[in-house]
Design brief:
52% helix
């Protein structure tokens, strides 16, 4: 009967690691939580200012704008995929080492 408490603690450790693994896997597979948005409250339209009697001067030509940065390449996604693989492998090794 001396092994019973040790077996119980080992089973709890395995159950805790399994729960942690499932929580991490669920967090990685679910999309990021969208920020809470408030519903817009309808308001009365603002009155427009009176139009000026003279036309507005023409705008000066704007200088060309630098092109936007290109989207990040796939290496960031690859690092994320490898992170998932490493984490799941480590969790599997831990579970197997505790089970044996």
């Amino acid at each position: 009967m001396a092994l019973l408490p040790m077996q119980c603690h080992g089973g709890l450790a395995v159950a805790a690691l399994l729960a942690l693994h499932l929580a991490v896997a669920a967090a990685q597979s679910s999309p990021a939580a969208a920020p809470a948005t408030s519903t817009p409250v309808p308001t009365a339209p603002a009155k427009s200012p009176p139009t000026p009697a003279t036309p507005a001067p023409t705008a000066t030509p704007t200088p060309p704008v630098a092109p936007a940065k290109s989207p990040p390449n796939g290496s960031n996604r690859q690092y994320g995929q490898w992170g998932k693989i490493v984490l799941q492998t480590v969790m599997a090794v831990l579970l197997l080492s505790l089970a044996l």
